[in-house]
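Entry 14: structure prediction run for AraC family transcriptional regulator. Input pasted below.
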Amino acid sequence: MNPPRSSPFAGPPRHIVLLANDGMNLLDLCGPLQALSTARRQDPEAYRIHVVSAAGGAVVTGAGLPVATESLAQFEAKLGDGERIHTLVAPGGSTSERFVTNPALVDWIRERAPQAQRVCSVCTGAFYLAEAGLLDGLRVTTHWAWAEQLQRAYPALQVDPDPIFIRQGRIWTSAGVTAGIDLALALVEQDLGHQKAIAVARQLVVFVKRPGGQSQFSAPLASQAAGAGRFAELHAWIAANLGEDLRVESLAGRVNMSPRTFARAYVAETGRTPARTVELMRLEAARRALEETSLPLKRIATDAGYGEEQNLRRVFQRQLGVSPAQYRERFSAH
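Run finished. Output tokens:
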């Protein structure tokens, strides 16, 4: 007699709570919600998904579309004996230029998060986790346009505006808008395995499943925006000459400054060191070459200023968590 087939998921149900508040970005909520719901269709026992707001009822998103929610009290009443929140997700979005948290949601997160297996934020949802005291001392991310405000408001955080998402133990933070889908796919992969996550991505017609370390935006464009005035010409020259000597001394000479004066002025103007800008631009050039050409890795390493192929491999592993070959396999159009 054949043994009974085991369920793909045995144990307490995974209660997934997506918090909602007025003014939130619609896609910050519905992107992860759709990804998790698609995973549930493939495995009905995988998740129990709840969209929860402080008072319940209709919550109006920043796009003007109301979303039906259950209240915190209604959700609490649904939990059975011994059940707890598996994953708590705080979506972001704001209708003003200054992010303001809902005190009731902050208090609830502060109380419930310690018992949750995972706590996540999408976009400015990081402000909720920070206000609840969950992010102190951690490296976190948010939408690039809000990173500076988040860092100023919570100086104990290490805010990195570059990655799509960051995992620090059981705390996950992600960039904004579509990055919430990348975060949700990573959660599905952790829970249900790589093949299930890929199947969900296909159902969502997501061309690729991006690694969390991939940058939110183009490094050259970001640098040009950050130093649009004083160092704009320097940034354009760097992008066109990645194989040249790009040490601080060389760059300082191009703008007729001493290395010390240049380094201080550059950080004050752009918020990052010259070396970091060069690193990001070289990585961006290598990524684009892998995505858009069939050039050999040795040629890409030379053109991007890495010199040797092994240097290119080391940078990709450190920055993106994948090898150049793996990156090309995921992202190349060729």
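Notes: The chain is about 45% helix and 15% strand. Will compare against the previous run tomorrow.
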